[in-house]
Amino acid sequence: MSRLLTVSDASWPARLAPGLFVLIWATGFVVARLVAPHADPLTFLTVRFGLTAIVLTGLALAVGARWPRGWRGWRDAMVAGILIQGLYLDAVFWAVHRGLPAGIAALVASLQPLLTAAVAGPLLGERVSGQRWLGIAVGLLGAGLVLAPKLGTSGGIPPEALGVCFCGTIAITLGTLWQKRTAAAVDLRTNAAVQFIGAVLLTLPLALLTERGAFDLSPPLLLGLAWAVLGLSVGGILILLGLIRRGAVAGVAALFYLVPPVSAAMAFGLFGETLAPLQLLGMVVAVAGVAIASRG
Q1: Is the backbone of residue 65 left (phi > 0), alpha (psi -120 to 50) or beta?
Q2: Can you tell me the distance from the alpha carbon of 109 to that of 93, in angstroms, rounded to the nearest whole number?
Q3: Helices (H), ranges, 98-218
Q4: Which residues pair with 39 in a beta bridge?
Q5: What region does 272 belong to: left with phi over 0, alpha with psi -120 to 50, or beta?
Q6: Could you tell me which residue ranges the EamA domain spans (predicted)?
Q7: Which tens digits make up the pLDDT trace of 102-153?
Q8: What is the pTM of this model?
Q9: Beta bridge partners of 215
Q10: How many whole angstroms separate alpha carbon 132 and alpha carbon 179?
């Protein structure tokens, strides 16, 4: 994964960042499973986004971080937040809540590296090499193998939920490209804070219009919320934004292929879900795909 980073960023924290991001991001599926019985999805996300914005704002103020200057800077960060945070997570949580199997949702999300590579050239002028295309294809195959044993276990697939989930994947792809294009010199702490403000402005009205506001304050919900805010939304997003700034977006996006295998391993350890031999093979293939893509 070394080429996701520039030579000047070759310190040990930078070298650890890709792996740490995958570990943190993979816990999102664990959090979703943990809190699902205790809160409406968009209500949970509204609280998560709002608390994250407060935490990041406090952090930025404490260290004197530079805030965006002028409307354009605020607009760029809010657009990124609406795409990367709001539309993507709202779509995935809504789709799963409407009956889309989590394995299918993860497989749809795994299309992101393919979409990113396809549009990085026309929109950013990044050349995607043949080796990187090969790595993306191998990674997609690996993610599919990991998820394959689960795809037929939950009955039919609601077409509207599948469509919404795919739209969410398009949103995070466009958000990643937008972030790469507009945030080369911004302070990532204030940029992330404004992103989550944008996500709240999108999600709160949707929650008020479509949900009853279920939020039972049980220990599993509070535990999941705490990790979702501090681990996923603060830690994971700051690492992701840093990776996007330092690396080619196609290479960074390839890291998402590792999320389904790591999530499956976490589910095995935490919930006793079995891992079929095909899934273990898929993990190896996904890792190989990321290794190929990151050196392309």
Answers
A1: beta
A2: 12
A3: 102-109, 112-124, 130-147, 159-182, 188-210
A4: 215
A5: left
A6: 21-147, 165-294
A7: 666 776 777 777 777 777 666 656 666 777 778 778 877 877 776 677 655 5
A8: 0.77
A9: 39
A10: 21
The helix/strand/coil state of 215 is strand
Chain-centre distance of CA 133, in angstroms? 21
Q: Which pair of tokens denotes residue 61?
A: 């103020």
Instruction: Identify whether the C-beta of residue 102 lies closer than 8 Å to the C-beta of residue 32.
Output: yes
Q: What is the mean pLDDT of the chain?
A: 80
> What residue spans define the domains of the chain?
15-295
Which residues are within 8 A (CB) of 80 and not within 5 positions of it... i.e. 6 or more apart? 175, 178, 179, 182, 183, 191, 195, 198
**pLDDT score recorded for residue 6:** 42
Task: Return the half-sphere exposure (C-beta side, CA atoms, 13 A cut-off) of residue 43.
Answer: 18
Between CA 118 and CA 173 the distance in angstroms is: 10
Report the b/e string of 134-162 with b at 16+ CB within 10 A: ebbbbbbbbbbbbbebbeeeeeeebeebb
